[in-house]
Amino acid sequence: MSDKQSDELVILVHGTFAGDKKRRDEGDRWWQRGSTTWQALMTTLPKGTRLPPGQLFHWSGANTQSKRLSASMDLLTDLLDLERRGIRYHLVGHSHGGSVIWEALVSAQVMTTQREIADPIWARLTGREGVPKTWKPTGHPIETVMSMKLHAQRAEERKRERMLPEFLSMAQLPGLRSVTTVGTPFLRFLPEPSFRYQGWRSPRFSLADGSISRRDRIVRSLMLLGTFVIIFGMVSLVFLTASYRIPFWIPLVSFLLYLILLATSERVDLAKSLVVRERAWRHVFARFSDRWLGLWAPTDEAIRVLQTAAEPRPPDYVWLCTPHTEREPLSIDRKTKRDLKLPVRLNPKMSALEGFVPATNAGRTFSSVAVTIRFSFNKVVGPWISRKVSDSLHEGVQGNDMFDTALVYASPWPLPLADLPPGLPDDLAERLDRHADEQAARLGPEFRDVVAYAALAGLPLAEFREWLKTRKLPVDRALLHTGYFDDPDVLALISLHIERHMAKPPRGGKARAAASPKLTAWLDQNAVEVAARLADFRTQVPD
Description:
Strand content: 5-15%
Largest sheet: 5 strands, parallel
Order of helices and strands: EHEHEHHHEEHHHEHHHEHHHHH
Low-confidence stretches: 128-138
Mean pLDDT: 78
Radius of gyration: 30 Å
Helix content: 40-55%
Oligomer: single chain
Shape: globular
Structural class: alpha/beta
């Protein structure tokens, strides 16, 4: 198969918990070769496009932001390889697969200004440069190894410098023809306030300039000063006389303070990276919004759950993107205590019940102490444990495994704007909702039969969970979120969108023939509404 072939690739990216641990390309998952969805796309995709004939894109599907970001870098590497080979392509992502796609586009945008992101991608694309032919070994073995590494490093640097303009041109992703996200909850994590920088709750925080705080500059200056004090203190202890020495505790305290500030440096870098990427999201949406199709139902379970798990009262996104000097003051709640009110309590024992067990003097004394302990635990320790467990559960749902960050927005759009247009035609969304309800009703009796069988078999809870996995109950069919691709109209919308953005759309292609005039009209209206919302946003928040 030649890299110059004219067919445009349609790359499928699965979402959370939908990966294949054995990285198999064939299977019954929607994105795998041979599945029902794969066969349907083979029929509906327009002429001049094709699904990948070789290895498919794989990622773990773990529900953590770090895994999604790692997958996005893998995807970006694959896209840049397609760019280098001159192959045009379309991206289709379901659930967090859409997030993986968009994070890859954001990384490509950031890469054009930050070399530290471009270098690892470059190394993965080109491989390490071997030893140049002009290299000549020296006599000593150690010198030989060091000389070989130095020559290889210099050759790689020279090659990178020569190819940098071409590489940055590829990072613009000119071969990307369209992006389709299906049931994707776009998650926006922002830094919480810290003593070193302003977080999203701070009144002066804004995404307009991209800076998080001037305080960090002061802290870095203190770190330099602390380094000088430590060095001077050590020198004075060794070389100076007692009359000129500084007290021992001064360099010691400076050293401890330096360690504390150094330990927080990683969190500062993370906060800065989040803000830089957040600004890049806006530019990426402006570039690719005319090629993006977002399909989602208002009753999508994943989107609704994550919106519930996000911050309950976040500021308007337009307000957050406006310079703090040009916007109305807004009072943002301090960090919300997400408390599920878990029953973490110490309850009185039977001996503490008046009149039930004969009381003794020792019992009365112990009972008084126990009352004090129970009161303290139930008022202080129990609620604290409940809040911590609640926070952990919420972060687990969000997939938030980053330091000092909060899920501020969860939106079916890459930009978390208010009053979004519908993500599907009304009748199609209602049909998907009705189908999920019907499947859930059928699943109920089947699930009860399984539980009854396990009870009669006397399976313990742990063994029951493992045994339940082997039964492979069709739980996915009872969720609208996992049922999009079962509807032919959803596949028709995807194919029609791809056909519209092909470099050379076919005349009377299969996608247009399969789509009804009603779907075509909705797709036209959706494109108009997306463009209008973007224009309105850019009017309120100029670049």
